[in-house]
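Hey L., structure's done. Input below.
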Amino acid sequence: MRNYYRFVAFLAILFILGIAAFTLWGKYGIKGYTRNDEITVQLNEIKTDAEEAWDNLDNLRERDYEADYLILDMQNQILLMNAKSSGEYEDFTLERAIKEGYPYAYAMIDNKVVGSVILLTDPVGSYAKARSTIIIGVSILGLIFIGGALVFGKYVENRLVNPFERMKEFAGLVAEGKLDEPLMMDRSNIFGAFTESFDIMREELAESRKREVALQKKEKELVASLSHDLKTPITGIKLTTELLQAKLMRDGETKGDNGEILEKLGNISSKAEQIDALVGDLFASTLDDLGEFKVSLKDEESLVIGDIVRKYDDRGLVSAGEIPKTLINVDTKRLGQVIGNIISNSYKYAETKIDITYDILEEFLEMRIRDYGPGVPEDEMSLIANKFYRGKKWAESKEEGSGLGLYIAKTLMEKMKGEMLPANTEDGFCITLLIPLS
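Output:
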């Protein structure tokens, strides 16, 4: 509607300028007004007769010139007046006639001006009156038109545009998922009949979303419950496998024929470890979705990190530097998950030695875990910590994985008020952990 009002304002300005131009043209154009031939003939006829009867002008009263006229001498004294309203012209002068545009002519006898003849016909005044009437009439019509346009615009704005804008805004809120704000109902506008239907739709969408959220929560709780329940049988499989391996190794010293069985048990143990890791990651991810992924921070000696590294370095590939003696504020169990996931990833995709260095950086203990594998493509660097993301190298490798390891590591570091920073190096890949100090 803003453009509409601008257009109406533009028309109003044009109309005002047109009226002003017409008024000015009429005002200054009168000066160039030319008497028509009929008036000129009448004036010349009266002038000629007056010159012939100058000594006895009363003789002119008997003649009908079909026009009112006035004869003045050189001192503007009225010599003869033929006018119905004589009182109006008692003080009439030649100067006034010239100023107001009355037709006039000089009476001459023997080439000498003796007076003047003035027709009391006022064509210029009549024109001015007609012009004024036209200006007033057009102005009134213009004001009516502009006023009507404004009233119509306001009507359209209130009954159509504003309701449409409110519905447009409402649709935007619905698209953004904001379903708590009701749509105000107004049956006086053109959309009034539909407003209630749209608000009912909003209520149904809100209820549908609540049901969806509740269902998703139940699904996640089920996954969390199953993941937790799977821990027990997996642990049982691992323990049973270890016992069988120990027994067969002891028996093998005497029998010497248990090598193939031990190999199979080793495969079972390895797969059980993989399943245990996957279930653990899935359980942690589900707890995070449910908002129940908790950390319990407390002050620990930094040397505890060395114990965690040794626990998860089951292949003996880690070469760790000296840990600065300080106090860190962490959840050691969760920090173990972080470091374990990072070392496990390096095992899978780099299969090289792993160097770990430490440094104090302002309010953090900086732990740099570096391998010498192919690294991560730059276009994937911002994605590797996303949930369930597995890069191109995972597709090319034979390693199994859930895409949750680095996601969980990053989430846990953030919950411990630290940070995980992955980056490529000249000859490998490095993840920097910023562990908060006490």
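Residues 50 and 289 are 118 Å apart (CA to CA). Residues 30-34 have pLDDT under 50 and may be disordered.

-- N.
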